[in-house]
Design goal:
The chain has helices at 6-38, 48-56, 64-73, 79-87, 94-107. The chain is mainly alpha-helical. Helix 4 packs across helix 5.
Length: 111
């Protein structure tokens, strides 16, 4: 026998749908920031800690430092900081300019 009335079950389903929408929206924002920082979305790399915490299991706290550590373990670097450092140089070598162009291409999809 069912534990909830149809009305209560409808409220529960509606709450779950709203929570799923909010969760997806938050994941999209995290992914956009990840692309802005690393030039790649977190779901595109083998960052199990990130995927488990953000997409699957959840948790009470997850810091930018923990996120960075997981991305670093997945061979991802902060391309935004690398770009900033390169652009701060007074002159760029041909190789450095090519690297700047590549990073900017990778980041161009972010608003």
């Amino acid at each position: 026998m069912a534990n909830l009335t149809d009305s209560a079950f409808t409220r529960l389903l509606t709450q779950a749908a709203k929570a799923a929408y909010k969760h997806r929206s938050l994941c999209d924002r995290v992914n956009d920031e990840c692309i802005a920082r690393y030039g790649v979305g977190y779901s595109e790399v083998d960052a199990d800690t990130v995927i488990d915490t953000i997409d699957l299991i959840g948790g009470e706290y997850f810091s930018a430092e923990e996120f960075h550590e997981a991305m670093t373990l997945s061979d991802c670097e902060r391309v935004d900081l690398k770009l900033e450092k390169l652009l701060s140089l007074s002159t760029l070598t041909v190789e450095q300019q090519e690297e700047v162009d590549e990073i900017q291409r990778r980041l161009s999809g972010i608003e």
